[in-house]
UniProtKB/TrEMBL annotation:
InterPro entries: SAM-dependent_MTases_sf (IPR029063), Thiol_S-MT (IPR052356)
Name assigned to this protein: S-adenosyl-L-methionine-dependent methyltransferase
Pfam family of the protein (one): Methyltransf_23
Superkingdom: Eukaryota
C-alpha cells in the first residue's frame, strides 16, 4: 500500500515570521495559566480539603473545572487558524473527546451531524456542556457520556449505551468522525487511548485534531521556546493544569498506533511553532 500523504515530518503552514512581541508572548503566556491553575487548585482545597486525600482524580477535575469555567471561553476563541473549518467538517456519528463545557460546540455543523457523543469525565462540566449543546443547535443530537477517553473508561460507557456489545473488539469501528480538540495532552494513558480511538473509528472515518504538542525544535520550532516548555513542565504544569502535558509527540503517537498502513491519508500541520505551546492540527483518514 502506498504511504499516506504527509507521511514524514509534520509541515508548518506558510506564515509570516512572528515579531518580537509575539515571541515574548508565546514564551510567557503559559506562566499566567500556571498561576491561575494554582489559584483554583488552592480554592478547591479550601472547599474540599479531604477530597484530595480520598479521590485525587475527582479533586483534580473539580479544580480544573473551576479554571475552565472562567478561562475556557477566551481560550477557545484563541485557536489556530483553520480550527473552525476542521471541526465543521465532522459528519455522521461523531465522538467528541473531552469537550469540557462545550465552548467548541459552535464549530460543529448540526446539519452534517447524525448524533454526537461527548465524552467528558469532569461531571462538574456536564450541565454547562448540555446548555451549550442546546445553544448551538445540537440539543437533540448531543449526548454526554460521563467517562474518560481511555479504553477502560470509555468502552464500558459505550457498552451501557448499546453502541458496543460486551467484549467487542471494535475492529469494524462505530464512529464516522472523532474530534480531539486540546484533549490528548491530558489523557492519562496516551498511547492506549490513541489506539482505542483508532479502533473505534470506522474504515474511511476521519480523526480530526487540534492539539498542543512537543516543541519541534530542532526540526523547525524555536530553541528558546523549547527551553520554556521544559521549564513549565518542571515546575508542575500537569499538576496545576488538570494533568495536561505540554511535551507529547501526538502526531508520532497516532501514526504508531495505526501502523504503516493504518491511515490512508494524513494532512496535518504545525502552528505557532515560535511559542512554548505549539499546536498540531489536521486530519487522519483511516484506511478502508
Amino acid at each position: 500500500m502506498a504511504q499516506p500523504s504527509n507521511a514524514g515530518a509534520v509541515s508548518s503552514p506558510s506564515q509570516g515570521p512572528p515579531d518580537l512581541r509575539d515571541r515574548i508572548s508565546g514564551y510567557l503566556f503559559p506562566s499566567r495559566l500556571i498561576l491561575i491553575g494554582a489559584y483554583y487548585f488552592s480554592l478547591t482545597l479550601l472547599e474540599a480539603p479531604l477530597l484530595i486525600l480520598t479521590d485525587f482524580q475527582t479533586f483534580h477535575h473539580k479544580a480544573f473545572s473551576k479554571l475552565w469555567a472562567v478561562c475556557g471561553e477566551d481560550m477557545s476563541s484563541d485557536m489556530p487558524p483553520g480550527t473552525a473549518e476542521l471541526v465543521a467538517s465532522c459528519k455522521g456519528v461523531v465522538l467528541d473527546v473531552g469537550p469540557g463545557t462545550g465552548t467548541q460546540l459552535k464549530l460543529f455543523n448540526p446539519e452534517a451531524i447524525t448524533i454526537i457523543y461527548g465524552v467528558e469525565p469532569a461531571v462538574d462540566m456536564h450541565s454547562k456542556l448540555l446548555k451549550n449543546a442546546e445553544r448551538y443547535g445540537l440539543k437533540t443530537k448531543y449526548e454526554v457520556v460521563g467517562a474518560g477517553a481511555e479504553p477502560q473508561s470509555l468502552i464500558p460507557a459505550l457498552e451501557k449505551r448499546n453502541l458496543l456489545k460486551m467484549g467487542e473488539k471494535n475492529s469494524a469501528g462505530i464512529f464516522d468522525s472523532i474530534a480531539c480538540i486540546r484533549v490528548l495532552c491530558g489523557v492519562p494513558s496516551p498511547e492506549e487511548t490513541a489506539d482505542g480511538l483508532y479502533r473505534l473509528l470506522k474504515p474511511g472515518g476521519r480523526l480530526v485534531i487540534c492539539e498542543h504538542v512537543k516543541q519541534p525544535y530542532p526540526n523547525g520550532g524555536d530553541f528558546i521556546a523549547s527551553l520554556f516548555q521544559r521549564f513549565y513542565m518542571l515546575i508542575g504544569w500537569p499538576f496545576w493544569l488538570g494533568g495536561c502535558c505540554l511535551d507529547r509527540d501526538t502526531d508520532q503517537m497516532l501514526r504508531k498506533v495505526a501502523g504503516p498502513d493504518g491511515w490512508s491519508e494524513i494532512n496535518v500541520n504545525y502552528s505557532q511553532t515560535h511559542a512554548a505551546v505549539p499546536y498540531i492540527m489536521g486530519e487522519y483518514l483511516k484506511a478502508a
